[in-house]
Amino acid sequence: MNRSSIALGVFLGCAVLAGSVSAAPLVSGEQQRRSDLVVQIVEKWGGHVEGAYSRSSEAWGKDMVPLLMKVPMSSLQRAADARTFEGMNDALLAKAAPVPTMPRVGLLNSARVSGANAAPAVKNEDSTEALGDAASDLVYVPVAPCRLLDTRVAGGQIGANSSRSFDVAAATNYTAQGGAATNCNIGSVSGIASAVVNFTVVGPAYGGFVTAHAFGTPLPLAATVNYATGEIRGNLSIVPLDADSAGNDITVFTFAPTQLVADVVGYFIAPQASALTCTSTFATQNVAANSIFDFPTPACPASYALTGAGCRTPGFNEASWSINGLFSPGGGNPTTGYCSGLNLTSGVITVEGTAQCCRVPGR
């Protein structure tokens, strides 16, 4: 797409926006500046689009010009100044809603009453008494925001009252649908149940909505993003994936013709049972003849829990024990290992103490 055709597209677009299409309007200073910035952006990144996404720079430019003429001048300037293709896109989408963080979900208190008069479970954000059902509850795994799709780069806008399907899991990269040239740290993960995706509509022809849902399932009633004419608007959504599909995982329906951009920020996956990982700590103390000894075993490393402890002497019947192993000063669950007793011999003995420390890595 050459410089003159880009500039003409911006010029005519600005004229339409100004409501002056019956006569040749004068080019304002802002319109000329917009034209120059659009030319700069399309010329700068057209070759990148051809190389990375196998789409002609002319086709990409024709799609981008109508969108660029509606972008605020401040965003357009930042896009023109961007040093990376991702930075340019981020600048153009600056009006979209920011990606919200995942809400903190309270854990269910484990104390329950069964039967017809059972009270409803109460959520307590600070409770750690129950972590859910390991057989059915899902684990959230965050990832760095990564582009899954961009119809401005690949595929073109989605038509009115129509749907388009996209790949999320089991992908080497997402360039075929305008996304990242990597697997976004999600494409290589098996067994993903749902993806957490920020969907952004760009320049819809009129007001409406988009709805994302699992590929091959009926269109649900709930909207993912509601939009007005020409808006850039985003919203975070948790979208179930088609577990049986080796290709497309999600489908997006739109009421009005629109461009669509989507970034993945995390996913939900089934928990995974893991074997215990264990280590031991050791301590020794030399005890004089007929003397009392009383010392703790060393603490467990960070993230490990104490699961066992014990004490010994090299010889048989060299000591009488008051504490040999796990001990709780407060009388509750054991919190440390202790070696406490009396040297029964007339010579120096060595008392050895050890603690067993384990953890479950989990997923």
Short summary of the structure?
With 363 residues, the protein is an alpha+beta fold.
What structural keywords apply?
33% strand; Jelly Rolls; 363 residues; 16 strands; four-stranded antiparallel β-sheet; Immunoglobulin-like; elongated; alpha+beta
Number of helices: 5
The N- and C-terminal alpha carbons lie at a distance of 50 Å
Largest sheet: 4 strands, antiparallel
**Would you list the SSEs in sequence order as H and E?**
HHHHHEEEEEEEEEEEEEEEE
Structural class: alpha+beta
The general outline is elongated
**What CATH architecture of the largest domain would you give?**
Sandwich
Q: Would you write up a description of this structure?
A:
The protein is α+β, with helices and mostly antiparallel strands. The protein folds into 3 domains: 3-92, no CATH class; 132-269, Sandwich (Jelly Rolls), CATH 2.60.120; 277-359, Immunoglobulin-like, CATH 2.60.40. 19% of the residues lie in helices and 33% in strands. It has a 4-stranded antiparallel β-sheet with strand order 3-10-5-8, with no helix packed on it. A 4-stranded antiparallel β-sheet has the order 4-9-6-7, with no helix packed on it. Helix 1 (3-17) crosses helix 2, helix 1 runs parallel beside helix 3 (57-68) and helix 4 packs antiparallel against helix 5. It is elongated, with a radius of gyration of 32 Å. The two termini are 50 Å apart. The model is unreliable at 15-24 and 103-132 (pLDDT under 50).
